[in-house]
Write a structure and sequence with these properties.
Layout (H helix, E strand, L loop, with lengths): L2 E6 L5 H12 L3 E5 H8 L5 H11 L6 H15 L5 E5 L5 H13 L4 E7 L2 H10 L7 H22 L5 E5 L4 H14 L5
Parallel strand pairs: 1-3, 1-4, 2-3, 4-5
Helix pairs in contact: 1-8, 6-7
Length: 191
Amino acid sequence: MKDIVLFGIQGSGKGTQSTLLQELYGDRLSYFSSGDIFRALKSHPNAIGDYLSNKLELGQLITDEVTISLFRFYFSTLVSDKKSMLLDGYPRTLAQLVDLVQTCLHSQREVVGIYFELSREEAKKRMLGRGRADDTPESVDKRLDLFFQKTLPNIELFEKFFPVIRIDASPSIEEVHEQVKNISMSTKLFN
């Protein structure tokens, strides 16, 4: 059993593919999506909701302190030796990557990255078409810039510790999912 880290530019289909993976292997997975959690919490009328709402609307990353704390809580309470972690949206920064690598190496968990490769232009088109309130042209451009400045270098660094499987995310959802299924079977990701 291996833990899976989904990488990809926003709009590359990480969330969609994670949903499809959960449908296939749900009983063997423990899913973590920092973005889903932050979007759910931003609607609360309190200081946390206000903070998250402001950051997300401006297309800014949530601080490492908040994101790492959330991941550590998830890892300490919801992860077991009987399930693979499926991570979507974590790690995005160097500090988050260091935390993940230390956590996984310390706990002797086997980790594989899946990188959904997609052009910036296609990612922007998809993001603006999905209808999320925080997907304004300005915030989309900022988030895409952050991906290339912060996340992409971390994917390359992640590869120094763990294998990364690259998938072309430009075809249809079904075609990409077929690639994911074939890889998960041939590499025995969830066995």
